[in-house]
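It is worth pausing here to work through a concrete case rather than discussing structure prediction in the abstract. The textbook approach is simple: state the sequence, then state the predicted structure, then interpret. We follow exactly that order.
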Amino acid sequence: MTFLVINGPNLNMLGIREPEIYGNRTYADLEAHIRDAARLFGVAVELFQSNHEGAIVDRIQQAYGEVDGIIINPAAYTHTSIAILDALKAAGLPAVEVHLSDISQREPFRQVSYVSLACIKTIAGKGFGGYTEAIKTLAAFIARKEG
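Step two, the predicted structure:
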């Protein structure tokens, strides 16, 4: 089983950007956490991060026929990108949305997620652990679907 893990804009600035919200751990720490979690569940992962909406859309489209599922933290594009929503729908792969912070407790504009409309679950406010839960959730979903 292989998952594409997509991280959107400014996640490459973890450890620098708003540490009171996102903590002091870096993007490299997040990548290591995701790889460790994937090993725990026997899943291969491909990691992708971009600050560019079109690059994220392109990578989702390329994932069709290439991976079994997508884990996505669209970051600020969560609240603005119908293009990412449409790409997820077009690819037709099961997807889980992840957010480090609890977007339901943040500014009103951050409480709207277009991307969630194409996801089997949204996990928010669990920090790096949200990615572990996303891997577990997606692996179980695919296993049930194939079983």
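Step three, interpretation. The helical segments are 19-22, 27-40, 53-63, 82-91, 129-146. Residues 139 and 145 are 10 Å apart (CA to CA).
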